[in-house]
Specification:
Length: 114
């Protein structure tokens, strides 16, 4: 009888240890999930935001260069000589009394010559 009690007590201790082991594993799994959400996700978000900031900074540099070129262009267009030059080049305008000449490119040869 004493042997049976000892065996039953030992079996009960074994079940308790096993339950503790399961509880510890569940808690460790929960801790891993918490760590993933607490550290990995924010880190990934931080890295993607850093990439977005870098891309935005590159776009800003391009836009600033474009704005700089437009300001230069605008400053040049404030002079009469630049307005006249562009009117002549872009629109073929001439001053009164000038004779405009248009050069027509030669047509391509119709036969092949060796």
């Amino acid at each position: 009888m004493a042997e049976q009690r000892r065996h039953a007590a030992h079996a009960q201790q074994h079940r308790v240890r096993r339950r503790r082991g399961v509880v510890v594993l569940v808690l460790l799994g929960f801790a891993v999930v918490v760590v993933l959400f607490a550290f990995v996700y924010p880190t990934r978000t931080f890295l993607s935001q850093r990439e977005e900031v870098s891309a935005a900074e590159r776009r800003l540099e391009v836009l600033e260069e474009s704005a700089k070129a437009l300001r230069r262009d605008n400053a040049q267009l404030q002079t009469d000589s630049e307005v006249e030059r562009r009117a002549r080049e872009d629109f073929g305008m001439v001053r009164p009394g000038e004779t405009p000449y248009v050069l027509v490119p030669a047509p391509p040869p119709t036969t092949w010559l060796p």
